[in-house]
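Reopening this one. Same input as before:
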Amino acid sequence: MNPKILELQQSLTTEFNQTAIMSIMGVLLVALGIALLFVLIRRLPEKAVGRPKAETRLNQLLSELRLSTRDRKALETLCESKNPARQLSMLESRKAFEEIVRDFRTRHADDPAIRQIPALRQKLSYGFGNLRNPFEDTRMLAAGQRIQCTLPVQGEVGFLTTIVGITERFFYLKPPTAKGNPVDLRRFKTLAFRLTREDDAEYTFEARLVGQNPQVVAMDHTGQIQRLLIRHAPRIPVHIDTEFSLVGQEVVSTHVQGWVPEELPSQQLAGYVADLSIGGAMLVVQPREYQPQEGDLLLCKLPPIQIPDAVSLSVLGTVERPDGTLQVHGRFTGMRELQRLKLTTFLDAQQAAAKSGAAAAVPSPA
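Same output, byte for byte:
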């Protein structure tokens, strides 16, 4: 073949290949551009309606929670933004609330909005009283909360006190009294605390004592909190003879909160308490016509523990024993903090006596 013709043919082939490649690249770029444009067009309406949706949901929640205008302004201040989505996150998530509050508290320690945080935390149900919230910080406590306090002295002197105030810096409590006068606790660097959340766990923590005027003790907040599941609490063997008032579950279910268990119709059973824990007890009773069943309520008095009022036990299960008696497992319900303090003191004394090898006999009621 003529060399010039061959050279021309190769030149034409090269140009054709380059043109084809450029064409393909052009088509791909156009297709990519169309795809990007399509995505942008689809996302624009979402952004356009996203803010109104967040505003609508925010206003709905603010109304449902009955937050005041002052509360709403505090939320906006804490968020440092008028973005409704950010404010909404504080109302819908305890974690988001605490993160935003912690950041604001760190950077704006003297801002007046900080004074409203404790009340907001309770209004949003982010406090200790809500079982769904893990108890991770003493800022979750509320004024009026009853709490057990132990002084770091030999013999561990304990008393029941009341939290009288909460700020983001401190919590305040009433000191114990001696001969009608408040006890000066300022010689102690720390105090130990214990409180129980029914149907959940017992919590213990230590806090640093900041100061005291005669009537109020100021304590530093802490997040170092230990949790003991009530069902895992140590069970202490005892033998406390007593009588039980049995209230059937059909009677219990017809009454609402506020009723007095002692006033309900009941049957009397004889027996004794065989073991005790902070969360419940194991009883041995002499069965009669009606035997305790799951869901029933047993009321009993425990004079050796110096609890004058009857305590309530919800029956969890029963086991028939070879001697014909019935073993009943129960969980304390509606126990007041003073009763729980006395029970805790009794159990601690029994455990200490057992460790030291001393006799830990429990007197039976006369």
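So the earlier flakiness isn't reproducible anymore. For the record, Residues 44-49, 255-260, 359-366 have pLDDT under 50 and may be disordered.
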